[in-house]
Amino acid sequence: MRFAIFLPPDASKANPVPVLYWLSGLTCTDENFMQKAGAFKKAAELGIAIVTPDTSPRGDDVADDEGYDLGQGAGFYVDATQKPWSEHYHMYSYVLKELPQIIEKNFPVSGIKSVSGHSMGGHGALVIGLNNAEQYQSISAFSPIGNPMQSPWGKKALMAYLGNDFSTWKTYDACELLAQKMSGLPILVDQGDADEFMVEQLKPEQLLKAAETSGSSLKLRMQPGYDHSYFFISSFIDDHLEFHAKHLTV
């Protein structure tokens, strides 16, 4: 597995810094956010490291699909249980356990972390953060697939990776998680109202409804005129970094 890391200038063994784990969307690699988001200046100012894993395992021996929304580049941040995916597709556990262990062993970072992401990665940030609230300080997302059990992208991925036992899908649906239990973590979600995927795939209104059901602290900001692109992310990434910085300084 590949990942990219940004370290602020003041990071050192004597001054380990907190980490924001960023999870990217469909078709992305570990490089997209680092090249396009424009996050380094603000992250350096705030003293936050950023880690961006790839969106799936890669290689000739790794299962794949002809569609852009399944297989390599589309791991969906789940632990697959169905063949042929179950051999390599364990993105949930990789982001939650293996990757932080590698980062904390090899770089001057603390164990204090938050999680964020875009689209499929926004879904990943939400479900990993909500399921493991004791390990994170805050969650944010841009245009997340908030209700994958009711989304074409989500249904395709969950059926392929997890099979037709729908009860197993709920672990990976932020709406299900938020509706069932109040989250103690602060959550920030930005959604562009000109996003072509908003109605069919993303369903931000269902995410907000689920949070209200449990009394969870989720702030949804609808951003007029913005679509699903990295222009949207780069326009508001400073806000998200400042949001996380408030909770990472513990």
Written account of the structure:
The chain is 37% helix and 17% strand. It is α/β, with parallel strands linked by helices and 250 residues long. The chain has a single domain, classed as Rossmann fold. Strand 4 (109-118), helix 4 (120-131) and strand 5 (139-142) form a beta-alpha-beta unit. The chain is globular, with a radius of gyration of 17 Å. The mean pLDDT is 98. Keywords: Hydrolase, Serine esterase. It catalyses: S-formylglutathione + H2O = formate + glutathione + H(+). Belongs to the esterase D family.
Alpha carbon gap, first and last residue: 30 Å
CATH topology: Rossmann fold
Radius of gyration: 17 Å
Number of helices: 9
Kindly provide the name of the CATH class: Alpha Beta
What general form does the structure show? Answer: globular
Overall mean pLDDT: 98
| Poorly predicted runs | none
Q: What class do helices, strands and sheet pairing give?
A: alpha/beta
Number of DSSP E strands: 7
Which architecture per CATH?
3-Layer(aba) Sandwich
CATH superfamily: Alpha/Beta hydrolase fold, catalytic domain
Helix share bin: 25-40%
